[in-house]
Every structure is written in C-alpha cells, then in structure tokens.
Description:
Layout: H1 2-22, H2 28-31, E1 36-42, H3 45-54, H4 56-62, H5 67-89, H6 93-97, E2 104-109, E3 122-128, H7 133-149, E4 154-159, E5 162-170, H8 190-199, E6 201-209, E7 212-216, H9 219-229, H10 241-251, E8 256-261, H11 262-276, H12 290-296, E9 304-312, E10 315-323, H13 332-335, E11 353-359, H14 363-377, H15 381-395, H16 403-407, E12 415-420, H17 427-431, E13 435-440, H18 444-461, E14 472-476, E15 479-486, E16 500-507, E17 510-514, H19 517-525, H20 540-545, E18 554-558, H21 560-573, H22 577-583, H23 593-603, E19 622-628, E20 632-640
Antiparallel strand pairs: 1-2, 1-8, 2-3, 3-7, 4-5, 5-6, 6-7, 8-9, 9-10, 10-20, 11-12, 11-18, 12-13, 13-17, 14-15, 15-16, 16-17, 18-19, 19-20
Helix pairs in contact: 11-12, 15-18, 22-23
Amino acid sequence: MNNIARSLTSSLCLGALVWTATAAVPPAEQLLPADTLAVLVAPDWSQVGGARRGSALARFWDDPALRPFRDKFMARLNREVIEPIEGDLGIKLSEYTALAQGQVTLALTQNGWSGTAEPVPALLLLLDAKDRREQLSQKLAEVRLKLADRGQRLKTERIRGFEFTTLAVNLPSALPKPAGAQPSPPSDTTASASTESAARDLHVSFGQVDSLLLLSTSPKSLEPVLARLAGSGAPPLAEQTAYQRDHRARFREALAYGWVHFAPLGEIVGKLASAAASPAGSPNPLVPATDKMLGAFGLMSLRTLGFSLSESPEGEGLELFLGAPEEKRRGLFQLIATEAKDAAPPPFVPADAVDFNRWRLDGQRAWATLEAMLNEVSAGMISSFILAPIESAVQQKDPNFDFRKTLIGSLGDDLVSYSKAPRSPSLADVQAPPSLALIGSPNAERLLQSLRLMASTVLAMFPMPNLPGELKEREFLGRKIYALPLPSLPTPNGAPAPASALSLAASGGYVALSTDAAMIEEYLRSSESRPKPLAATPGLADAAQRVGGMAAGLFGYQNTRENMRVLFATLKQNPNLLGQALALTPLGAHTDAEQRDQALKEWLDFTLLPPFEQVAKYFHLSVYAGRMTSDGYSLKFFSPTPPQMGQ
Length: 647
C-alpha cells in the first residue's frame, strides 16, 4: 500500500513538474515587481505581426506601385545598417526576431533608485518564444559561444536555480556608474585603474526559463520575476493600485500598451528640485525655482501616463491617458479640464475642410487658472511686468479699456479651427494652407475691438522694420475686417516669403482670425449661403462613436486621403524638400547642398513615388476626441479601415 501511495505521489509530482514546465507564461503585470516605473507590453507578438501585416499602412508599403521607391530604400537600409550590424555580431537578425511568439515586455524597475548616482533603475526584457523554446535555447548557446570567441568577459551564475550568463560591457567614463559599482580609492596604481575600469562596467544578464527569455541590466532585478514564475515572492505590479485602475480601464483588450508610474518619479524629481533650489548664497529673484514651477504647473499631481493600441476589422485605435485624479488636480490639468459639451463641426464648417478641431474651453476660467499658475511661480508676473504697461498704453486710446473686464470678460467657451487643402503643391502654398480660427464670445464685437486695440498698441510699443504701426480696416458685407501685418518667415528653399497679414472679423458669436483674407470672407458669407457641411461627411459620425462621440468637449477630424494627396504632389514637385528643410536646422546648415541632397536621394528618392491615385485606396479619414474624467484626461484616436482598400 505504501508503495502504491509513493508511486501515486511521485506520478502526481512528475505531472505537476511537467505541467509547470509547459504552462503558459503569466501576463507581464503578474511577473513584474510593484516598483516598476515604466513598462511597454505586447501581450501576444504574433497578433501584433498579424495586425501590422493587415493594416492599411502596411498594405500601402507593400503595394506593387510603391516598389521602385521601396526597393531603393530597403536596399540602402540593408547595405548601410542591417548588414554591418549582422557582420559585427555574426548573426542574422531575422532569426532572432522570429523567436518572439508570445508576450514581449520591456520594463524599467526602480531597483532601489532614489535619485542618487547608485543604484540606478534596471532595464528588464521578457520575451516568450512559446513553442520555439528549443530554437531559443540554441540561439542563446550561439550567442554565448560568439561572445566567448570574441574575448568578452562572461560569468555564469545560478539565480533561483536557473542558469544565467552575465556579460560585462565597459561604459565610457562620462556615463554614470551602474548599480553595485564601487568607486575606487584615489591611487595611481595599476590595481586602482583596474578597479576604476570595473566600476564603469554595465552588467547584462540573460537566461531562459522554459520558453521565456529574460534579460536585465541588474541580476538583482531578476529575483522577483523568477520568484513570481514560481508562484511566490513579493506582490507584483498587478497589485499596484495605480496600475490596476489603468489596466482595467484601458489595457485588457489592447494589442500593445505602455504605462509609466509617474508618482514615484515625480517625488524624486521634486526632492532633487528642492535641493537644487537651496544652494549657498541668495537665489536670483528673476529666475523661478524649479520646485516652485513644478508645483505651480501641477506636474506633481500627475500620477500615471499610459497609451494603448487596438486593432479590429473596422480600423485602428490609439488612446493616450494622463492620470491626474480630480482631488489632486492643479495647474495645467485644471487648465485642460474641459466640460463635456458639444464639439461637433458647426454648420458653417465646409465639407472640403481637410483638418478640423473644436475645443469647448472656458476662456475666462482658463485665463484665471493660467494667471494663478504664473503668479504662484512669480508673484505679480503677469499684472506688473506684462499687462500693466500694455493696459496703460491702450487706455491712452480708450480710457474705458480694462483688460480683465473688456477682453477676458468677452471670452466664451468655444474654440474652432479648420483648414483646406493648399491651393497648389508649391512650397509657399503648402506652408500656408487656407485656414481659419474662431474664438467664441458672448459679445464678439467687443472682443474684436479689444483685440484690435491690444494689437495696434503692441505694434506701436514694439515697432518692427517694414511693418506699419496700425491695423488696416475695410468693410465686407457690412462687417469690419481688420488686417494686422505680420513679419515674413523663411521658407524651406530660402526664397523670401510674401508679405502676410492676420485678418480679424466678428460674426455669428465668433471672432474669426486668418492669414487668408478669402477664408474670412467665406466665413462671413456662410451666414447667408450655407455650404455643404463637414458634419455630413460619409463615415464621420460612425468613426466619431469609436472615440466616444462628439460631445466630450474636444473633437477633431483629418481627411487623411487629401492630406496624403497634397504630400505626394509636393514631394514629387520638390524632391529636394527634405534637404531644404534640413538646411534650416543646425544639423544641415553647414553641409554642401548638392552632396546633402544626393545623399538623401539615395535613401528617399521621391521621384520614384507613383501617381497618388494608384495608392489612394489606402487612405481615408481619422478622428480624435478628448475628455476629462475623475481619474484624468483621455485622448482617443481612430482611423477607420478605408472602404476602398479591399478593391
């Protein structure tokens, strides 16, 4: 009987061991420690690959019409980047990337870091090869052998019973020392030099547990992960309250997601800022203290940041999230705390608009928040140093002018902007497409006159060459249009930009602003002759439902197809546009233009792009919406699958 019991017990234990060896790898949040500062996760890499291959962007890139452009770029990429890396490492990168079959996780753990040079946070990579664990084992053996053949310093150790290889990588002396590195005592001896060299080593440990590859810059950070794999150890990230809330709301069905625990980072940054704000000697009163700025701007009320990607036959989605609980919200987070109001395109926004945005921001409350925020940084900054001189100068023209009552008191809770496609693919037209911005107001005419007085006063106080000190005035359909002259900006090709002016007019409860006089006139006419509205665009309403509708206080739209059509035309007409833009930056300002343009053409030869009509089916529209909740601010994007893509 005892033999039977022992045999049964042994069988059960063996079965448990076999099950453990082949069990699915737990989710990342069940493996990572609670002190995880940031994490990037793809729960199933095979699904990511499938979604990528089926996406509109991937199918556009693989289209035969794009082959000449694609082949030239990929040939250069392989020759200049991939092949040299593979030659240095003695491996084929594709053989290693193919090992990712399950979850892939990249995490940064606190690892005892408190803002000092040592210890430092640890980087951790987890990759599940699933049924390719034998190939994973072979590739790791290859890596160890190649590293040993190259004379790399390797050390084999066991962590919780599993074998790990540690590679010592020498860092430049200018870089911070890694965790656990001990500073050498001052000495000129060879031993001291050797110790100092070891102190600058970065230790990278890697090993395999069943189908899971683990890699870390600190062996210590592997301990809690291995403990969780065995079903023991300290509480994991999944039990961190801040993570739990965000995971339930956003990550459960995500194709991939990222999360940052900003609260501990903010505390460390705040301590460092406070310490830096109290140096020996008197601080400069004109330079605000960093800790005071962090508090005033409300950055210390930020608890988490996150994003999530989703994919479905209907389209692709992205959500960005700032976790700032309502009871802790200050500064910038109070500023963007938009109430849930209608943000749909108004009837006067025409159907040929390629970009649209509407934000139901309460202007008076936003100004009060901004003023309080800046005054907390430096008392009286706005009133004494900025507004008082301008207000005094304006009152010489209008004694009744009061900045807060006359201008701020005229602000409403509606900001609208939209633009149309450029009139031509010329650089000048692409740089300044027809666009219009509108500021909602309960008294639009008073707001317009306040802006006119402020603008003309500033022009007189700060005169600029070739700019008149007064606004030009004209009438159109019984409305006053004022034109504020603007300084010319450089163009990408270095040609002088034409003179421009900002036109302002009031109508329909808005003050309209535009650098395109025709857009102002079109808006003023819209009150009598309604254009075909953007709101009636096919597919717009359905797409809006994917981001929570148009009634959350912020809504935007892009006609991706028309924007890409313009981009194709501009690049084909100006194939050296990228080089011209680069020439305006410090990176390309001192390079030979011909050599620069030729080098860029070897990578991106825009003359090889096909006619846009051949690839137009891969582009449609996209929408986004933002809303403030009790937990923070959410911004959602959605791009529906183009209806013609399957044709």
